[in-house]
Amino acid sequence: MNPTPYPQRTALGLAASGVPVLPLRRGKVPFGNCTACADNACGGRPNMKSAGPCRCAGVCHAWAAATTEPSVIVSPAWAAAWRRAECVGYHPGGAGLTVVDLDDADAIAWARTTLPATRTVETTRGEHWIYRGTMTSRNAVRPGVDIKSMMAYARYLGPGTGLMAELPDAVRALAVTEPSPARSAAHAAVVPAGFGGGECPHRTPAYLARGIAMAEQRITEASSAVHATVYRTFLAVLSRHGRCGCLTDAHVSRLFTAAQSKGETARHCADAWTNARTTLGL
What we know:
Structural class: alpha+beta
Strand content: 5-15%
Radius of gyration: 20 Å
């Protein structure tokens, strides 16, 4: 029997530790969609910007293909991809992580004087600084710096060195885009009146925080029917907060983390979220 190919063996080890993985081909990019999924004809993987979710067993839809399921990683549908793969990719957000991708010496120098020390992995041109916690992914947040967390993938280059720190506010702030005055004024004009002196109650921090905390508790306290509980909870959150724009990736990540603590995979969470959105017409 042939030994397990290096990329696949590495992927299985990562998956066993809860890190969703996918094969990357030459150029450190995901494999293209299969014929059935070309141009997202299938509806797209969960969390992609399409109706979805796709049930394809192939290595499709980039980061959304990442999985921790050993049966998928060793399946015939993935076998050809592993034979052609040059390296292993992973979904940082699905593992509860954020990667600060520093592309050059200037970016590294900036990080060393600005960000708290954390686990560091050397890359071809720079370094990956890995923090515990998730956030919105965004490229080019400053010269030579990308953020890879939710809805993104990163190349696995080894375990790295140093202790992993909690995701600091300094990194979260990099992905925040201030709305233009014109856009803010336009939004204010359509906020429904009649609550709190005309202010949307969903934008009250305590109101939203309490709702998310209650949703997390409902999921973590589920003793049976976890799949159904997760879906109903997602549906309840979206029905209350899904139309006013107050939900952020950080809120969604908290709900996904609660669900994954009960044994749900990142893909199952994304399926439930997409189905809830579809049900509500969002």
